[in-house]
């Protein structure tokens, strides 16, 4: 039943924001999802009684919340060229494979990191040292002001610049996320960056 529910929610969002791309709609659903239920315990834990072991690998972005998705504040937008750059940065994927799959090859400019795709999540599979990740938030409707709150993953120091920022209606703003490995964990760890308006 998940597919028809999501399709219906996408239709509602598209009706309210007809110019939004699939990535903007996905962003709205991800950034407004609930990871806790009415009892404030993780949604997956309510179903499986595995409170301590549930991670985003289990519950994704969370449980969709249609009432908040209509007005998420801002969205992360990506287009075709951004996905091509993403494919070109995947280790072991060659230009000819990408050309066959999508009809265009990799640009001549330096390849970026896979983590640079402008999505609501950041994944770095093997952080050694430090990495800067950039995101662009786009506001629709009215001016917005945000304060950044960070819950750091185990073994990683995270700082976001700017910490407080304003974005005018129908405009975008770049945000720099600096990640520094502070200890070796040999496992995935998860954190959270919240933009509080």
UniProtKB/TrEMBL annotation:
It holds the Pfam family fn3_6. SUPFAM superfamilies: Subtilisin-like. The keyword Signal applies. Keywords: Signal. Residues 1-61 form the Peptidase S8/S53 domain. It comes from the Eukaryota. Residues 116-197 form the Subtilisin-like protease fibronectin type-III domain. PANTHER family: PROPROTEIN CONVERTASE SUBTILISIN/KEXIN. Belongs to the peptidase S8 family. This is Uncharacterized protein. It comes from Datura stramonium. The lineage of its organism: Eukaryota, Viridiplantae, Streptophyta, Embryophyta, Tracheophyta.
């Amino acid at each position: 039943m998940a597919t028809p529910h999501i399709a219906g929610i996408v239709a509602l969002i598209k009706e309210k924001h007809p110019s939004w791309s699939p990535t903007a709609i996905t962003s709205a659903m991800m950034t407004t999802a609930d990871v806790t239920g009415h009892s404030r315990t993780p949604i997956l834990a309510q179903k499986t009684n595995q409170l301590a072991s549930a991670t985003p690998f289990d519950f994704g972005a969370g449980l969709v919340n249609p009432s908040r998705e209509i007005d998420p504040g801002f969205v992360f937008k990506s287009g075709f060229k951004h996905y091509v750059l993403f494919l070109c940065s995947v280790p072991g994927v060659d230009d000819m494979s990408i050309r066959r799959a999508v009809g265009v090859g990799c640009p001549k400019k330096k390849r970026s990191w896979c983590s640079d795709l402008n999505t609501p999540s950041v994944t770095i599979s093997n952080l050694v040292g430090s990495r800067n990740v950039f995101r662009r938030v786009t506001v629709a409707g009215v001016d917005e002001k945000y304060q950044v709150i960070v819950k750091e993953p185990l073994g990683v120091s995270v700082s976001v610049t700017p910490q407080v920022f304003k974005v005018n209606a129908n405009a975008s703003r770049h945000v720099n996320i600096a990640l520094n490995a502070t200890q070796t964990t040999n496992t995935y760890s998860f954190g959270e960056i919240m933009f509080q308006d």
